[in-house]
Write a structure and sequence with these properties.
InterPro entries: NAD(P)-bd_dom_sf, ODC_Mu_crystall, ODC_N. GO terms for molecular function: ornithine cyclodeaminase activity. The protein has two domains: 115 residues, ornithine cyclodeaminase, domain 1, CATH 3.30.1780.10; 185 residues, 3-Layer(aba) Sandwich (Rossmann fold). It has ten helices and 14 strands.
């Protein structure tokens, strides 16, 4: 890897705003990329309880691969839960072009995908009330990404650790909206619900979510883990990055399907449908909108290319 330009987390954050990262994802879709044929991630267990993920993608003039680690025991060691690197390659020659911080790329691209979905699904024309589950890096990044696409009247942070929840609420106040900590029941009055946690069981009662509200769940790509419950999924219009990926990895959908509550045809549409104008923006007002993201390699590639091009390397 000697001589390959490297982008660290600090430089990546300075190069691309959440809105610009969302634009990069949208441009990939508008350029004809088909998420349905994106290679599935490979995952292997690592002794000690961790997981190693391999996520390759190729499109247009570029190819790339993310090697990511998920180490649940790391926070107790004072280390990040998500680790990794991203290698960007020239497509025609497969010559390495740049090496990026993989964890920072994930922290940037995941909320970028959510923000892109919210451009089409979230209520518009008025300040919104956000209930945000989680207090880690993805929660902070999602807060910033939401503010890039919608005005917020209030942010309510719900997290397991009261101190961390208050820390995120305090940070939210520095960005403009009123913010405080709260409880899961407050989804009843939310316009937006964002779930950025490591939860394996539902975080709130889906019956409480109002019609017309938008829920985004990004915390899991495991078929047995979920942040939303069957009640919400059954009554929601459901959007995903890719039908194939969701039906492989989205526990939020696969658990209700295993229960017999929904079928594989329950998915309303995809991100590509929304961006391409094949589905109306806003979704049906008679029910909640649920965007379930599992994270895909084509998204990493799109944002990595935008970062490298912005850096001029």
């Amino acid at each position: 890897m000697t001589g390959i330009p490297q982008l660290d987390a600090g430089r990546m954050a300075a190069l691309l705003t959440p809105a610009a990262a969302a634009d990069a994802v949208a441009s990939a879709l508008l350029g004809g990329l088909d998420p349905e044929v994106c290679p599935p991630r490979s995952a292997i267990g690592v002794p000690g309880g961790g997981e190693l993920l391999l996520m390759p993608a190729a499109s247009g003039a570029y190819a790339g691969v993310k090697i990511a680690g998920v180490a649940p025991g790391n926070p107790a060691r004072g280390l990040p839960r998500i680790t990794g690197s991203y290698l960007l390659l020239d497509g025609p020659t497969l010559r390495p072009l740049a090496l990026l911080d993989g964890a920072a790329l994930t922290t940037l691209r995941t909320p970028a995908v959510s923000a892109l979905a919210l451009r089409y699904l979230a209520p518009a024309g008025r300040p919104l009330r956000l209930v945000l589950f989680g207090s880690g890096p993805q929660a902070y990044a999602h807060l910033e990404a939401v503010l890039a696409v919608r005005e917020l009247a209030e942010v309510v942070v719900v997290a397991r650790h009261p101190g961390r929840a208050e820390g995120l609420a305090a940070y939210a106040r520095t960005l403009g909206p009123a913010a405080r900590t709260g409880t899961p029941k407050e989804v009843a009055d939310a316009d937006l619900v964002i779930c950025c946690t490591t939860a394996r069981e539902p975080l709130f009662d889906g019956r409480l979510v109002g019609p017309g509200a938008t829920v985004v769940a990004v915390g899991s790509h495991e078929p047995t883990a979920r942040e939303t419950d069957t009640a919400l999924v059954r009554r929601a219009a459901v959007y995903v990055e890719s039908r194939a990926a969701a039906l492989r990895e989205a526990g939020d959908l696969l658990v209700p399907e295993a229960e017999g509550a929904i079928g594989p045809g329950h998915i309303t549409g995809t991100l590509a449908d929304l961006v391409g104008g094949r589905m109306p923006a806003g979704g049906p007002l008679s029910c909640p909108q649920l965007f379930k993201s599992v994270g895909m390699a084509w998204e990493d590639l799109a944002v990595a290319v935008a970062l490298v091009e912005a850096a001029g390397v």
